[in-house]
Design goal:
2 helices, mainly beta
Amino acid sequence: MKNIFKKLLIFMALLLFSCSPDNLTNENETITNSDSNNPGILKTSTSKISNTGTSKIWNFDNLTEWEDATQVGNPNYWIENGNLRIFANPNTWERSKVKTISSFAAGTYRWTVFVPEMGVGDMASIGAFLYNNDTHELDFEIGYGKQAIRDQLAAEPDDLIVYMTSQGYPFQSVQKKIKRGQWYNLTLQLTLTSNGRYTVSWKINDAIMATVQLSYGKTTKFKIYCSVENLQFIGDQIPQSQNYALFDAVEFKGI
């Protein structure tokens, strides 16, 4: 009888140990552990949660996470003193571009870019834009501008024209003047309405310049582009100068 009682006690102890809270996993729980270098900081296990927010900044010390997107001509860009220098040559229709390897959705996109003096009348554009396809594209494009647009905006000799465009759904293009030879923060802010569609705002140095409600939303993701392209819509002559831009940083903050 003693042997049976002893075996029963052992069995009950084993059963209690196997069911202790430390060995049970709740799929809805967040598992944490201490950082060995900072014991007071708790880390959250990403295996149990889904984090939809993303934050990225590229300072252009290199082109990691970017790839060539040049359409015409040679890839005319390199890293120079912590900036991406990108250009297009005169008397060509070169279209020099880089894009992110990854795609992104709702959030705030910011380019820090130096806009130099550009050739008078040149059909050349500095681009900071988001692209999915030809109708799902959101742009900043900066150039000398056609004379008709310059006249309409009463542009001074040291003014350039920035085109802020949604290429479709709906199409909208707004033009404003900016001064050449300056650094700018160009921001595209994509927020979501209650039905999951995007509202996009174009900002220059944090001042809102244009806004539009799009008919598409969060299922459409974009790659981020930096470019200098010779394009016919933005001037009155094939470029006579080598036009360039400097990109100091690109940033994305997801929501």
